[in-house]
Design a protein that fits this description.
Pfam families: Prenyltransf. With about 250 residues, the protein is of the alpha/beta class. The chain has helices at about 5-20, 35-40, 45-65, 85-105, 120-135, 150-170, 175-180, 180-185, 235-245, and strands spanning about 25-30, 70-80, 110-115, 140-150, 200, 220-225. About 50% of the residues lie in helices and about 15% in strands.
Length: about 250
């Protein structure tokens, strides 16, 4: 092993040991951004970038397991992404499908779909449903795969579901309006029953949410990393966690 590698490993171990266990995030949202730029810089097909990004997801979840992170939400495919050029979208959906298969084979993570299933190809939607069922009893990291996801769409879907249930129970619009509260609407979100993300990480240097967990991230801490997602290293993750641990969370106060 060369000297730079030894120094890097030493620094990584030291950084990991310095993290206070009681200040690590319970739920992390990750915007896995930069796959296409990574491929372009490497002179490779876009498909290679998406595959490298998928490989990184499996590696990242191992880091989370090691550190005791309980919930991870991965922004894998937005509703806007569905408008990409057909050949690239086809390749991307293939990579996502293969990644879901690999998640199922880990025998560790519990997978949940968060997104509008109706906008996805039937085969992918069926695979997601089967994966949710087969991993439901697992006790490892709870992984929300945001596929066909849009924050605005999620809120609209929640309102529709709330109104539909109200109608089925004979509640008038006036009654719903008078009693509606944050907790009630939250119970119709894709992530109902889960804690909001404590930390949201976005790679590739972009500093915007792009519709990711619009409702849930109201009081999240944000960490923007310059590395493209396939190049995101464990030490980059540890730095994000150290930065989070050093912050004083105010929750809007």
């Amino acid at each position: 092993m060369r000297l730079p590698s030894l120094v890097y490993r030493f620094y990584e171990r030291r950084l990991a040991k310095s993290l206070p266990g009681d200040k690590l995030p319970h739920h992390i949202g990750v915007m896995v951004d930069g796959n296409r730029r990574w491929a372009k810089l490497a002179g490779s097909p876009t498909m290679a970038g998406h595959q490298a990004g998928a490989d990184k997801i499996l590696e990242f979840l191992e880091w989370c397991e090691d550190l005791g992170i309980k919930v991870v939400t991965l922004y894998m495919l937005s509703t806007d992404n569905l408008n990409r050029e057909p050949s690239e979208l086809r390749d991307l959906l293939e990579v996502i499908g293969n990644t879901l298969d690999r998640l199922g084979e880990t025998n560790q993570v519990k997978v949940q779909q968060v997104g509008a299933v109706d906008v996805l190809p039937a085969e992918l939607a069926a695979k997601l449903a089967a994966l949710e069922t087969s991993t439901a009893q697992r006790t490892g990291v709870h992984v929300n795969v945001a596929i066909g996801y849009g924050g605005r769409r999620e809120i609209i879907d929640a309102i529709k579901s709330l109104l539909r249930d109200a109608s089925e129970h004979g509640r008038s619009l006036e009654t719903v309006s008078d009693s509606l509260c944050i907790e009630e609407l939250e119970s119709y979100l894709y992530t109902k029953g889960q804690p909001d993300p404590d930390l949201v990480i976005r790679t590739s240097g972009e500093q915007r949410l792009s519709g990711f967990l619009t409702w849930q991230s109201a009081y999240s801490e944000f960490y923007f990393c310059e590395a493209l997602w396939p190049d995101f290293r464990r030490v980059d993750f540890l730095r994000a966690l150290r930065d989070f641990a050093d912050r004083q969370r105010r929750f809007g106060a």
